[in-house]
Each structure stands twice: as structure tokens, then as C-alpha cells.
Write a structure and sequence with these properties.
With 225 residues, the protein is of the alpha+beta class. It has a single domain (3-212), classed as C8orf32 fold, CATH 3.10.620. 38% of the residues lie in helices and 16% in strands. A four-stranded antiparallel β-sheet has the order 3-2-1-4. The longest helix is centred in the first third of the chain and has 15 residues, at 37-51.
Length: 225
């Protein structure tokens, strides 16, 4: 892809706010000692995956929870916010990046999350796409290692060269994640479209999730198929 076609994926945006001081500090700290684009992308992936706890109990009406700087400020985030942070961090260090989305069937979740969502279909599941060595590579920094350990899941790895998407099965052979529809990639987070669908599909999650704040990691031990 010519450089002028990737330039849009290096610019700071409303949610992928790569020019924000906190994002710059986070990214520069994460890539210390990394010499190549692959090394930097891998370092940023693991920094986002494991230093930001995954938590679906957030205020979905608050745009800050969908932005890179907002996730850093909160110290936690769900897949959309964490993907935005990875994309923003990559842009900060010169790696073109965007965010992608898919609708997935999540076969493993906690009892409380199932009660809030009333479905196992998760729409607008997010990952980042990084432009490395002339190719777009998918990376999903959602579930941190601590959540995976409590849930009995194998953490999703990333080598900077191949797509990193949730596996259909976990280490015990249980169904995990089934991708059913691809929504494509975007230069920035389509917040209004995501919130509109969440309000329609998950009204209880949107209204009650803030009251459940902070418990997702503890619930990971209750994950079941």
C-alpha cells in the first residue's frame, strides 16, 4: 500500500487519539529496547493485553471508555477500548493502524454477564489491524493473562506476522469464540453506531453494567460453556 494511502492510519483521531500525552508516554515506555516494527508491534500488543485489565462492566454511554486515552485513565477496558489503545499506540511509534470489528458468538462467559446480555451474540467485537511489512495484520489484545488464568483459557499470543484472533476452542476443548459476521475496518472507532446497537441489543448491559463495575476478573473463575 502506497505511503499516502496509509497516512490516514497514522493520524490522531477522536478515539484513536495517538497524539494524547498519556498515549505517547505509554507507547514509548512499552517499546523501550525494540528495534524493528515487528518488535514494537509485539511489545505494544502485550503491554495493552496485560497491563490493562479486561472489563465489560463499564459505562457504555461514556465515549471516554471507547478511546485510547480514556482506557489509560480508567486503567481498564473492554475489547473496543483496548483495540483503540493498541491502534493509537502503534500510530504513535509510526506503525499505521486501524480498528476492525466482527460479530461473534461467545460460548464462554460468566453467569452475571449472560444475565445482563441475554444472548451469547457479541456484536462489534473489536481487534486492531496493524500495517507491518506491507500487510495488514489482525491483533486482539482483549483478555489479559490474569483473566485467562482465572477462566482456564490460553492467552491469545501475537508474533507481529500472523493474524491473532480468538480461537474457536479453549485448551479443554470447550467452544470459545465463533466469528459469524465481519463488519470491516475503520480509521477510528464508530462510537455512535456501536452505542446505538448496544442500546437496542443489550439494554440491560448498558443500564446495569456500571453498577457491576470491577467484578469481571473475579467472575472469570465462573466462566462456563
Amino acid at each position: 500500500m502506497p505511503q499516502d494511502e496509509t497516512s490516514a492510519f497514522l493520524q490522531s483521531g477522536r478515539f484513536i487519539d495517538s497524539a494524547h500525552p498519556s498515549v505517547i508516554e505509554f507507547a514509548r515506555g512499552a517499546i523501550a529496547g525494540s528495534n524493528t516494527a515487528i518488535d514494537r508491534a509485539v511489545a505494544l500488543y502485550y503491554a495493552v493485553r496485560d497491563s490493562i485489565p479486561y472489563d465489560m462492566y463499564i459505562d457504555y454511554r461514556d465515549p471516554a471508555n471507547f478511546s485510547a486515552s480514556g482506557v489509560l485513565s480508567a486503567g481498564r477496558g473492554f475489547c473496543v477500548g483496548k483495540a483503540a489503545l493498541l491502534a493509537a499506540s502503534c500510530r504513535t511509534v509510526g506503525i499505521p493502524a486501524r480498528v476492525g470489528y466482527a460479530d461473534v458468538i461467545n460460548h464462554i462467559s460468566s453467569r452475571r454477564l449472560r444475565e445482563l446480555m441475554q444472548t451469547d451474540l457479541f456484536c462489534w467485537h473489536s481487534y486492531a489491524e496493524l500495517y507491518i511489512d506491507g500487510r495488514w495484520i489482525k491483533a486482539t489484545p482483549a483478555f489479559d493473562q490474569a483473566v485467562c488464568e482465572r477462566a482456564g483459557l490460553v492467552p491469545l499470543e501475537f508474533d507481529g506476522q500472523t493474524d491473532s484472533l480468538f480461537h474457536p476452542f479453549d485448551a479443554e476443548g470447550r467452544r470459545r469464540m465463533e466469528y459469524v459476521e465481519w463488519r470491516g475496518a475503520f480509521p477510528d472507532v464508530p462510537f455512535e453506531a456501536i452505542l446505538s446497537d448496544f442500546l437496542l441489543l443489550y439494554p440491560k448491559l448498558v443500564s446495569d453494567a456500571p453498577e457491576a463495575e470491577g467484578g469481571f476478573r473475579r467472575e472469570a473463575g465462573d466462566f462456563s460453556a
